[in-house]
Each structure stands twice: as structure tokens, then as C-alpha cells.
Amino acid sequence: MDLPLLIGVTGGIGSGKSMVCRLFECLDIPIYYADSRAKWLTNNDPEIRAKVVALLGQEAYDNDGVYNTRFVASCVFKNEPLLKELNAIIHPVVLRDTKAWVTRNAGASYLVKEAAIMAKAGQANAVDAVVVVEAPVELRVQRILQRDQRPEQEIRAIIERQVSDESRREIADYIVNNDDASELIPQVLHLHELFLKRKPSER
Ligand SMILES: CC(C)(COP(=O)(O)OP(=O)(O)OC[C@H]1O[C@@H](n2cnc3c(N)ncnc32)[C@H](O)[C@@H]1O)[C@@H](O)C(=O)NCCC(=O)NCCS
Ligand SMILES: Nc1ncnc2c1ncn2[C@@H]1O[C@H](COP(=O)(O)OP(=O)(O)OP(=O)(O)O)[C@@H](O)[C@H]1O
Known about the structure:
The chain has helices spanning 17-26, 34-44, 46-56, 69-76, 80-104, 137-147, 152-161, 165-171, 184-197, and strands at 5-10, 31-33, 110-114, 129-134, 174-177. By secondary structure, the chain is of the alpha/beta class. The chain has a domain at 5-35 and 95-197: Rossmann fold, CATH 3.40.50. The chain has a five-stranded parallel β-sheet, sandwiched between helices. The chain is globular and about 50 Å long. The termini are close together. The site of dephospho coenzyme A (COD) has 21 residues, from α2, α4 and α5.
């Protein structure tokens, strides 16, 4: 059976990838929000829980057993090797979960996966095409300061640890410009038209 096309949407912190995905959602496209799903899995998958505790200690979960994202963020966003190890625990589970989600949504005209980290289209069981959302760093910092309780220093540390805009552009099949001067909705509508015309996935 042909599976629907799977489009990846990625971008740095505060670039507006969730905003872009909300627009696809308005067009009735199902979205897999990998970062929040990863957190749900980290709370609910016993194998991940055991490995995360082994990597980061008991503090990775609070007294009620809930994933302590504040603590984990403070550990991994200033320590790249540790972030890589955390990713290596969580990613295979997220990939399996994505596949199951794609199968459950096999009737959709196409599907979108939003994730902070993404492989090039066609690689590592990845997506069929990658949309990179871009915005200038200072605008991203201002947007996150308005959205989150996160200290500015931590936002900048996250930006430092994430892949650079240049490397993201290398994996981009499409770029959405989300700076103050560009309109987002026409860009998403244009992509929607293109994706509706593409053939189903050959994964
Ligand atoms: C580190 C954690 C606890 C931080 O949670 P918190 O709620 O404080 O922040 P949030 O999830 O909103 O992330 C903050 C920013 O960092 C980005 N980000 C999240 N995980 C990663 C990562 N592994 N690598 C690079 N950037 C990341 C997010 O997209 C966002 O831009 C959490 O993000 C996590 O568990 N990440 C690892 C899971 C993962 O690999 N997610 C990526 C997609 S599968
Ligand atoms: N074009 C825009 N105009 C005004 N505000 C915007 C625009 N795009 C995004 N924002 C706001 O900026 C903030 C960051 O956007 P969004 O949450 O979509 O980014 P993100 O890339 O998903 O971030 P994260 O990586 O942290 O999940 C949000 O509060 C959002 O409402």
C-alpha cells in the first residue's frame, strides 16, 4: 500500500515551525509534533525512563514521576555530548512511533512531522521532503522571551547547541521565511498546493 507523503518541518528555536504547522493543521493536514510526543514517550515508555535515569540521575523525573524538563534542559542544552546521548535514547522510539502514526493516517492527502532535529529527506527512515523555517536570530530570541519563562541566556545556549542555519539549509527542500517582513500564510498555501500534487511516498 502506498503511504501518504511525509513532509518534515524543522527550524531553530523560535523560528516558527509550530506556527507553520498550525497553518497546515487549518488545511486539515494531520501533524506529528515530535518534540511534544518525545516528552510524552519519555514520561510513558518504561525503557526510555530507565535509560534517562541511568544517563542523568533520578532528578530527571520529579517526585511524582513526571519528566523534569527544566532539569533536563539545564543539563543537556549546555552539554552537547550529553544531548547526543539523550537523543540516542529517545530517537529510535520516536521513529517507531512516527511510523505507526503514518500507518494510522494512511488516508490523508499528505502528512507533516514537526521536529527540532531532522535528517535529510530519504535518509535514516526520514521524511520525503524537508521544509526549513527561518527567521533572524534576534527576532527568534525576542519571540521566545515573550512566549516562555526561559532565561535569555538559556535561549542563546540552545541556539549555540542547535545545528547552524547553514547546515539546516543544506537539508532543506523548501524554505519558509518567517521574518517580520514576509507573510506566512501565502507561503504555506503555496507549499500545500505543491504537496497535494506530489506522488505518494515510496518509503
Ligand atoms: C531537553 C528537553 C527536556 C527540554 O524541554 P523544554 O520543554 O525545556 O524545551 P523544548 O522541548 O521546548 O525545547 C526547547 C528548544 O530546543 C529544541 N530541542 C528540543 N530537543 C532538542 C534536541 N534534541 N536537539 C536540538 N534541539 C532540541 C526545541 O525544538 C525547542 O526549540 C526536551 O526538549 C527533550 O526531552 N528533548 C530531547 C527529545 C528530543 O530529542 N526531541 C527532538 C525531536 S525527537
Ligand atoms: N510570523 C510571526 N509573527 C508573529 N509572531 C510569530 C510569528 N511566527 C511565530 N511567532 C510567535 O513566535 C513564537 C515562536 O513560534 P513557534 O512556537 O511557532 O516557534 P518554534 O519554532 O515552534 O519554537 P520551538 O522550537 O521553541 O518549539 C510563538 O509565540 C509564536 O506565536
